[in-house]
Amino acid sequence: MDVARNIDPDEIGFDPARLARIDGHFRRYVDAGQLAGWQIVVTRRGQIAHSSTYGLRDAEAGAPVTPDTLWRIYSMTKPVTSVAAMMLWEEGHFELTDEISRWLPEFADVRVYHKGSALKPYTVPAIEPIRVWHLLTHTAGLTYGFMQTSVVDYLYRAAGYDLHWPTGMDLAAASVALAELPLLFQPGSAWGYSVATDVLGRLVEVVSGQRLDDFFADRILRPLGMTDTHWWVDGDHAERLGALYVPDPRTGRILRHDQFGALARQKPTLLAGGSGLISSAYDYHRFTQMLLRGGELDGTRLLGPRTVRFMARNHLPGGQDLAALSTGGFAESIFDGVGFGLGFAVIQDPVPGRVPSSVGEYYWGGVASTAFWVDPAEEVTALLFTQLMPSSTYPLRSQLRQLVYSALVD
């Protein structure tokens, strides 16, 4: 399905000539061999102001990026899982302050790393139980093995939790295994990017009585018309999938990464609520429009508007930002002036990060350099798709913000 411009940009406050700078800027990455190709969509007030593609989805095959190209969105799965959880919350299945061990008993007696080496870690009991809101905000004390910044990260990798998950394990078994590993910090005391959303996906399964893929299909994807969003692809869908790349450490030019990219063509045993989806610009555009419209799109309501506004508030302890609470390591966000809501980062103050945006804007991205944001104040959404790992390779997201906000002239 196409995502085409359907209104003159100047009718919704954009300068068309300034919007055209977006394509000129991002073309340079492709022409220099630093990206294979990309797709960008910018909207305001529900109208598409700018939609463009450039380059190749598969450089080796010479296949161009087309409007219906499919992209591995990795951690842009997290907001979808968070919406799923909040739909169940709206139905009264749990409170955000509930202990997750009520549904996931494996987390009843978690312990927290205190000191010592990976060979002989010393742990202490958790003072505070992991609660639902901790999972939504990455304040549960869980981590990612690929961080490589702590003893706990090492223990994750030793248990098989790096960029890949252990072979043959489903989400239920993974939840049990993760609960046996020590927490990085006491729940609610810090912020650490983590597998928390994967555990949240398991919570959705237990509370709803459905597998995560079935819940997504029944309650989110089909109702929103997101027919191009999948957990894996084959046949015609696989032909539309962009190839995955990493930068050559010597030249900076793209290198194909089929070892990791090929996983998108295999039916997963484990439905990773934090990183599992493949989607199109059209589909994720519909998801962000649902959020911008306060939980409703084309007569289908997933969430109430007050719930969406509540999700987009900073829920970090004491109203602090990520710079104050982060344990360090990688995240799909800058830290200065940025809080965290129930499923995505939230701009508290754009000045410390030196990137134009609005207070209350919320966003996230994926490790292959995909990104989105929703700006309720300006009624703007933006989407960026490409397939380059890691997302920290180039400042694509901050540059897109510069270009979009400098084109907004009303």
Automatic annotation (TrEMBL):
<dbReference type="InterPro" id="IPR050789">
    <property type="entry name" value="Diverse_Enzym_Activities"/>
</dbReference>
<feature type="domain" description="Beta-lactamase-related">
    <location>
        <begin position="23"/>
        <end position="397"/>
    </location>
</feature>
<dbReference type="Pfam" id="PF00144">
    <property type="entry name" value="Beta-lactamase"/>
</dbReference>
<dbReference type="InterPro" id="IPR001466">
    <property type="entry name" value="Beta-lactam-related"/>
</dbReference>
<dbReference type="InterPro" id="IPR012338">
    <property type="entry name" value="Beta-lactam/transpept-like"/>
</dbReference>
<protein>
    <submittedName>
        <fullName>CubicO group peptidase, beta-lactamase class C family</fullName>
    </submittedName>
</protein>
